[in-house]
Amino acid sequence: MAAQVPYSTKFFYGFGSVAEGTKNTAFNVFLLFYYNNVLGLPGTLSGVAIFLALCFDAVTDPLIGALSDDTRSRWGRRHPWMYAAALPMGACFWLLFNPPEGLGETGLFAWLTVFAIGVRVSMTLYAIPSGAMVPELTDDYDERTTLFSWRFLFGWIGGLTASLIGYLLFFAPSETFADGRLDASAYAGFGTTCAVIVMVAILICAGGTHRVIPTLKPPPAAEPFTFRRFIDELRPVLHNRSYVMLLLAAIFSSVAGGFSDVVGLYMNTYFWEFTTAQIATLVWGLGGAIVIAFAVTRPITEKFEKKRACLGMATFAILFGPLTIFLRLLGLMPPNGDPLLLYLILVHSMILVATVVAIGITVASMIADIVDENELATGKRQEGVFTSAIAFAAKATSGIGTLCAGIALDLIAFPRGAELGTVSQSKVTALGLVVGPGLMIFYLVTLVFVSRYRITRAGHERTLAELERRRGVAGEGTLP
User: What is the 3-state secondary structure (H, E, C) of 120-174?
Assistant: First the structure.
C-alpha cells in the first residue's frame, strides 16, 4: 500500500467532515440553547433527550461498523453506506429545528429525542464507514495523522461556518429581538441551511473518493452476518487494552469539548457579555486555531511520538483551559465592555482550541494504528468496528457533554430567556465556578486514560513487518 495519499483524495475525504462539523456545532452550541432558553424545555430534560440519542449510538455505531466491514457490493464496503446517509440526515436535521407549534413540555422532549436519534443514526451511516477508510488508505504511521488532520480541518471549517451563519445571518439583532438568539422563528432557517450543507458535504465526499474503491481492502471471507457473530467479533476488540483506554480518553476529551461548547454560548452571553457580532469575531479567530492545529500536529507527533505528544497537550489544556475564568473570578481580567477583553478571550480561545483539535487528531490516528495490532492478534481487519470509537467519541460532545451542561444549568438555577446584562452577579459567578473546574476534571481524566496506551512507532513498524511477512507480499499498489 502506498504510504503517501494523493492530495485530491485527502481533500475529498476530508471534505465530508464538513457534515460532522456542521452537525456538531448545531448540536453543541445551538440545540440545547434553543430548546432550553428559547422554547422553555428544562435544561435537564433537554440534556437527557440528547443523551438518550447517544445511548442509541452505543449500539448502532459498532453495529454499522461491523456491517460495513462485511459489506459486499460493486461500490465496495464503505461507499454504499455513505451514499445512503445523505437524504435521511438532511430530513431529520430539518425536522429537529422545526418542531410544530403548541407542543407542551412532554411533546418537545419527545420531538427532540426522536429526531436527535434520527440525526445521529444517519450520521453513523456516513461517519463510521468513511472513518474506516483511513487504515485502508495508508498503513504509514505519520500519514494517518495527516489524513485525520484533513478530516478535523474540514470538520472545524463546517462547524465554524455554521456558527458564522447563525450569528451573522439568522441570529443577528433585529427590531423585534435585540438578541436574535432568542428569536424562535430564526432557528427554522438555520436548521434548513445546515441540513443542505450536511447533505451536500456527504455526497461530495462519497463521490470524490469513489475512484479509490478498487484500492481499498476487500471484506473477509464470505460469511452471513449474524448478531452472534457480531458479538463474538466485538469481544476481542473490547479486550484490546490500548483501544479501551483510547476510547475512554476520546470520550472524555469530547465531553470536555461538548460541555465547553454548550456552556460557551452562555458564558459569552452572560459571563463576558459579548454581543453576537463579538461572538462572530471569536468564531473567525478560531479559524486560525484550526489551521495551526492542521499544520503542527504531524510535526509534533513525529518529534515526540503520538502518546507523549497527547499527554503533553492534555496537561496544557488542564492548566490553560479555565485560566481566564479563574482570573475573572479573582478580579484580574478587564471589565465587560472593555475592548481588551475581547482580544484576550480571542487569543486564549485560539490557543486552547488548537490544542484540543491537535489532541483529537492524535487520538484518532492512534486508534487507526490499533487496527493493525488487532489484525496481528486475531487475523481480522475490523476498521469499521474500531473506527466507531472515533465517531462515538465525537457524538459524546453533544450527548454526555450536553447532559452535563444541562444538569449544571439547572443545578445553579440559571434563568431562561434572560436578556443580556439582566442576570444577577451571583448566577454569573456560579456559572463560572461550574465551567472552570468542570473543564479541568474532564481533561484530567483524558490524561489518565491516554497514559495507559502502549503502541509506539517502533512497535507499529514491527507489527507492519510481521503482517507483510504473513501476507507474503512486498506492497499493495498505489492509490490513484
Answer: HHHHHHHHHHHHCHHHHHCCCCCHHHHHHHHHHHHHHHHHHHHHHHHHHHHCCCC
Contacts (Cβ under 8 Å, ≥6 apart) of 10: 146, 147, 150
Beta carbons of 238 and 388 less than 8 angstroms apart = no
Per-residue buried b or exposed e for 50-68, using 16+ beta carbons within 10 Å of the residue's own CB: bbbbbebbeebbbbbbbbb
SS3 467: helix
Residue 453 grid cell: 496506551
The DSSP annotation for 356-403 comes to HHHHHHHHHHHHHHHHHHHHHHHS---HHHHHHHHHHHHHHTTTHHHH
Residues 6+ apart with CB under 8 A from 451: 307, 311
Contact 64, 81 (CB under 8 A): yes
Tally of CA atoms within 13 A in the half-sphere of 152 that contains its CB: 31
Q: What is the C-alpha separation between 381 and 418, in angstroms, rounded?
A: 53
CATH of domain 17-214+235-471: 1.20.1250.20
Task: Provide the residue ranges of all domains of the chain, joining segments of one domain with +.
Answer: 17-214+235-471
Per-block mean pLDDT, blocks of 10 residues, the chain (480 long): 76 92 85 86 83 77 80 86 93 93 89 92 89 82 85 88 88 81 89 94 94 78 64 72 80 76 80 84 82 90 88 88 88 91 92 86 81 77 69 62 77 77 83 81 84 81 80 48
Q: Are 43 and 36 in contact (CB under 8 A)?
A: yes
CA atoms of 147 and 133, how far apart (whole Å): 10
Q: What is the pLDDT of residue 193?
A: 95
Whole-model pTM over 0.90 = no
Q: Which of 102, 94, 121, 99 is nearest to 35 (CA)?
A: 99
pLDDT at position 152, please? Answer: 85
- Please tell me the number of Cα atoms within 13 Å of 231 on its side-chain side: 3
